[in-house]
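The records we work with from here on pair a chain with its fold. Taken together, the tokens spell out the fold as the letters spell out the chain. The record below shows the convention in full.
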Amino acid sequence: MTAIAIPKKKKRRALFGKRFKITVGGTILAVAVLCAIFAPLLTPWDPDQQDLLVRLKPGFWSDKAAPGHFLGTDNYGRDLLSRLIYGSRLSIMVGVSAMLLSALIGSTAGVIAGLKGGWTEQVIMRFADAQMAFPDILLAILMVAALGGNATNLIIVLGISRWMVYARVVFGLTRSLKQRPFVEAATLYGGKDFYVMWRHILPQVAPVLIVVATLQVAQMILQETALSFLGLGIPPPAATWGNILAEGNTRLFIAPWIANFAGLSIIALVWGVNMLGNGLREHYDPKMVGR
């Protein structure tokens, strides 16, 4: 009886933990995405509207709060809550777009290297290894400094800087899958490489790609924030969490709420995305059940 009850308890705990992570992480991500989509309807002020009469005013927690500014104002009297909501638009858009670009490049390279083998595999994977040895944030800084800081360049730079993660994962899975009977049969019956890749390989690696892509969104958002904080991202006065954090950093002792709320927004979204990614990893990996 005891030997049977313990695994069941472990399985129930694992199932509860998986559902909890997916629910909490998915809820946080959904709230952030909805705020970004419906920003014009949710923001009480224009995020770029300046009012120097209420500059650096605290929020609802203080008697000195300016009316209507729930989270206070920045150095130019702009409403912080409105700028944070609009900032989520750019941060999420850049993060998701860069993730999709890197997933497209890396998955294609990994499948080609796994299917072809030989010198094609060596060229692609050694190039991936060489780029992985170079710090991705340093590579992003160098590329943005050369190309200039705007949303398009950020997406391209971040997408190129992380494609190796997908390439290595998909390469390993493809090498394993091409030995499977259904892939060998498709090849023997004259299936072209593109058909085999699209019809037989990608559907099998899709669950793993979903997990990797979810976790990489958080990484992309952090990198975009870091570049904007360093002044290499989307330039002001555009509202991004990195720009808001950089502005708050210079006035940390005068108006700490600027940096604090920007930092909390970044932490909450990245934590939620990581929770969702870990929950999906446990869902798609049967080996995780009962651990």
